[in-house]
Amino acid sequence: MTDPETPCYDAFEISPVPPPGPDAVAPEPYRGIYGMPAFVTIPTHDLTDSSRFWTAGLGFFELFSIPGTLIHLRRWAFQDVLLVAADPASAPTSEPPALTYSYACVLAELDGIVEACRALDPGAVGEPRDTPWNSREVEILTPEKARIVVTAAKPYEPDSAAARSLAAIGITPPKNPAKEEQQP
């Protein structure tokens, strides 16, 4: 946040992503039907192979499908992906698209996702890395060559390099009034 006049507040109550911490628990897959505020559509020449990678590797499930046309995948609420049959006249490409799709997980899930994807395609998975914005991320290429970044927030450590990096751009943790009231 570069504008100190713009309010910032904790809004985790509208997100399925739990606050980061050692006890963070991933929510259950969300099977409800809702108006999707955003989703990604990824063309594929092999719906079955792509769906297998997304479900067995990336932890999504098939919400529904239209055989030969579309598979709607989901993980948590608001993590929706539509795999669609690519135009048969278009040639598959070996290059990843310019678009990158990122989705959140909890830190305890990241290694399992990496292992599951490596079991399906060892060359498709990069090395997990820590970021200056206090997350651990890994880049994975799916069978349709979509670039996926799986990201997990790390617990906030006030004396860490990540905390200093965030503070340098104006992001600081919200003050906890309950803690301040307990202080003498």
TrEMBL record:
<dbReference type="InterPro" id="IPR029068">
    <property type="entry name" value="Glyas_Bleomycin-R_OHBP_Dase"/>
</dbReference>
<protein>
    <submittedName>
        <fullName>VOC family protein</fullName>
    </submittedName>
</protein>
